[in-house]
Amino acid sequence: MAIIDSAPEKTLFGHPRGLTFLFTTEMWERFSYYGMRALLVLYLTKYLFLTGHVENVLFYPQVKAFYEMMFGPLGVQPLSSLIYGTYTGLIYATPWLGGWVADNFIGQRKAAIIGIVMMAFGHFMMASEGLLFPALSLLIFGGGFFKTNTSAQVGMLYQLGDERRDRAYSIYYVGTNLGAFVAPLVAGTLGEEMGWHYGFGAAGVGMIVALATYLWGWKYLPAEGLKQKSEKAPRQPLTHAEWKSVGALILLIIPLTLWWACYEQQGNIIALFADANTDRRLIPGLIDLQIPVTWFQAFNPFIIFAFTPFVIALWTSQARSLKEPNSMFKIAIGCVLLALSYVVMAFAAWHGGSGRISWLWLLAFFLLITIGEIYLSPISMSLYSKIAPARIISLMFAANFAPNFLGGGFLQGWLGTYWERMEHPQFFLMIAGIGFISGAIIWAMERPLRPFLQKTHD
After folding, report:
1. Average per-residue pLDDT in the chain?
2. Comparing C-alpha atoms, which of 30, 10, 63 is closest to residue 213?
3. Diameter of the chain by CA atoms?
């Protein structure tokens, strides 16, 4: 079934014009999310959950009691890590709802607009101390309507079998991470220097720009991937082959969950480590200007932007010699690189002892983990886009976000509670071990799942 309105006009490296508007819209959503990621844990631990402010937070006693019922008495840092993990987790759980609504009722376009508006309101509500939890709720549900549907639309720009799809998702990933790079520099700096609420407000402005961008490119977006209720023909059930492919994609959730639990420590424990255990002077003794803590969250998207063209060039060269790894092996490489990044952090923490380590260790960490991300995240999105049946494409993209929900959220937050209970080198080695396990599972799965991860149906 053709799912684009007309022959696409190629304007970006031979790709449909709709790709430009989709990654620009996602760029501003990344600006808002990475603004939150740079600020949230620091905001909670250094300001909002301290005496004199925490009394103003609606539902705080109930939320704290809920977590303590599961984990026992919690100090400010463990509670903040759990709330951060819950936020980053649920924002990737609600895509199941957003995908189901889009596939069955309103389509990807309208669902994305609903998500943008909800997130804009959520960010502006963060400017009020008392509205922390209602604001986070709006951001969570808004993200659910937005994320799965814009990502699905990228794949819908291409016909079945179009080999440009993998590279389209990599281009999309670069474009979106421009917003992630700018967010800590703008929203993070405003939050640290002028007041936390200015940083959250800047993220809200980003979502307003996202809405304007999305509406501007409306005519270039793909047609809705749903069967309208007005049509009398019933939707065809999934075939046996399609169910096998869906099952294979769902199995991948297990190792990807472990990977994301390690990856998302960047906005949690790594942020706390950068604040308390890192010498942030640019060049000690020569240029003593300190790098703001929130700016470290810009390292990851900058490296994505800078290194993705080289990785794509490597894959292109490997493809010409028939040596390009398939999607599963690329994902396994991403797992190993993530694990090595935490080995670096374990050595740095051991080397630094009770003192502060050079910020260059963090740069090395971000370099390794981010190249691993380039190998894993856009490739997993492309894999789901290629293999998922078209009539449940948004729902299956929600499955692609399930590891972010389970691992990048709850498991990541729970692991963060061990930060104050373990020696720092031991903590980082624990995270590295989880990363190696995820890679081993992917490697072991590759051959058995290979027949089910090839597009053999429409």
Report:
1. 86
2. 30
3. 75
